[in-house]
């Protein structure tokens, strides 16, 4: 086994104390110097010059109200938040939520079924938001679209009370392109862009976007439409991606004080999922694909139709509960021993290619998603406004994977929120910015899954040989009735919330933000238990969410801050439903809390923006299959920097030191035979499940997340229109799962881009992993040792024409 690398500990209290003293010294020194109005005017001029030189929007220069509800710059926001403009997203070749690690501290996402649905932030899966509203749960159901966004905000920690309860890790807020500029002014003439992209492994993407001013019933309006279609292959064999995305955003001025914003997004996604490599051992990692091949000796496909049905596998009990470690092999029945064993004549050691993963071309994951919004804002002057927002989101999703899993999810969400914004000055040099409002959210859905009965025996397949009828499981989606959806949750839920925020600033330096929210949640589910028996359960709970933030804007350009927040979030299944078992136990509403301290700075004549944040967070989750709580504790240090010294040069950097610990021993839906003292050759045909405490798994386990992630990037742009960027990301070594039997090595992945702009034409060539780094990412789902092999060098060429 590879010796674990030594990881530096997080900064100690003396280090944080020295940081605090340094900030105090900065404050004191600046107040010893006489100040006049002239330096302030010069500073504003330098800000303008710096922004004009920042061609790719590296420096954050957009005010946003997404974090708290009141408009603030990035430096003045006392929370860790990263804002990425579409120009920077394109430059760095960010195509999925997994790619945000290149520019965002605190993020790292394993290969969740191979589908980039949600980002992991601070060791926790983040919520996806669209224009400030939480979307339907998306854990590997379909790719969350990045194309067509005007900008993206990654907010670390639980959502602010104005948004409602949410996961402690963070939120991704996607803002679609619209007919308004950063300054909220309407575009004054039609604009359009057509883009075509081709790349390695059959990548083909085409898009067209068009914005125009117009009048609607005599009212000034603007519209922006975006359409993208993709039909691509993959570096991995038998993996494909077909996706169509359409967005429309419209703004209409009913009067000088009333604005309508409305539109929507539709997505049609068709792809298939990948679990990466099975039968993983440390020797396989150290040997870069050294794989124990071998097919099951007993053929269970008795009717010869190429699929295993419940009636064919039921007599063999391919799922075995491990009640001890070492597990007594004799506890398996004779029929189990025969079904679990590999055929000795097929057992051998082979070398797997990184292209080979556990997937078939008949596997599929289809999703139709529709999102809509309608806002009406009444402005009563520069300091008061009333806004009513309606949001709709729906998902119709069906998936099948031949290792034995079928799911069918339908989900609809509607939310309406009314917000009053009022700003006033109660005393000299004191400004109070307030937000208050109410919201109502309603969810209805049907979550169906085919679970258990010895299905999902993932080690049974020899992926070096390929799928056979003896390891391909029949799906429930065929409608034959051979495979029922034995896990089904049909339900509705709602929450009514009241929230308020007070944002107070003294002398344009000291700032205190206090916000709170009360919610009443109601839920009804008619669902099955683990045995497939239906029952109807209704429950209601109240929750209180609050946030307190204190900051000081020092004249030297630094802004230290301190934030504490607590939030409650609803425990949802993969299809977005609250399962009956959680409702029965009253465990469907979970708590989380976070403490964050940091400093932000705009330095070097406003050409450098940097942030440093330390955090500690806790959360609970209820595991209905184990019937027990999982408790997590995380702490970390994050650093981000953006630097644009000249019009030709810009740099980005992000660094993360983090550790997330599971405080209890977990429940395992898949335990490796070797861990139980069993011969894999006699066991890979079945699977073992276990309660961690019964097989000697200790508490306080580190989650399969890297402790250190560093990313850097630099861009050069010439006056004649051509340029280049170069960067990379380092990820430290980590365990592949909670059993800590396999240590994945550290790695460094490089990326580069060449681009050229002339008149209406632009060309960009993006390449990733240009040094062909071999690496592995964990895929801890319900099995402990599934990993995904690295994707080799890839490249894509984009040609765009703007009119």
What does the model show?
With about 800 residues, the protein is mainly beta. Helices cover about 10% and strands about 50% of the residues. The chain contains seven helices and 39 strands. It has a 22-stranded antiparallel β-barrel. Strand 21 (about 510-530) and strand 22 form a beta hairpin. The relative contact order is 0.14. Mean pLDDT is about 90; it is low at about 1-50.
In which range does the helix fraction lie?
Answer: under 10%
- Stretches with pLDDT under 50, minimum 5 residues: 1-52
Q: How confident overall, as mean pLDDT?
A: 88
Q: What oligomeric state is this?
A: single chain
Instruction: Please state the overall shape, judged from the principal axes of the Cα atoms.
Output: globular
Q: Helices and strands: which structural class?
A: mainly beta
Count the DSSP helices. Answer: 7
N-to-C CA distance: 58 Å
The percentage of residues in β strands lies in: over 45%
Write down how many β-strands occur, each being a DSSP E stretch of 2 or more residues. Answer: 39
Please give the radius of gyration in angstroms: 27 Å
Q: Give the biggest sheet.
A: 22 strands, antiparallel, barrel
Q: What's the arrangement of secondary structure elements?
A:
Layout: H1 13-31, H2 37-53, E1 81-85, H3 86-91, E2 120-121, E3 124-125, E4 127-130, E5 133-134, E6 149-156, E7 170-176, E8 191-199, E9 203-216, E10 219-232, E11 241-253, E12 258-271, H4 282-286, E13 290-293, H5 310-313, E14 319-321, H6 334-340, E15 348-351, E16 364-381, E17 384-401, E18 405-427, E19 430-450, E20 487-506, E21 510-528, E22 534-552, E23 558-570, H7 580-585, E24 589-603, E25 608-623, E26 628-643, E27 649-662, E28 667-668, E29 687-691, E30 701-702, E31 708-717, E32 722-731, E33 734-735, E34 743-744, E35 747-758, E36 761-768, E37 776-778, E38 787-789, E39 794-802
Parallel strand pairs: 4-7, 14-29
Antiparallel strand pairs: 1-6, 2-3, 4-5, 6-7, 8-9, 8-39, 9-10, 10-11, 11-12, 12-16, 13-15, 16-17, 17-18, 18-19, 19-20, 20-21, 21-22, 22-23, 23-24, 24-25, 25-26, 26-27, 27-30, 27-31, 28-29, 31-32, 32-35, 33-34, 35-36, 36-39, 37-38
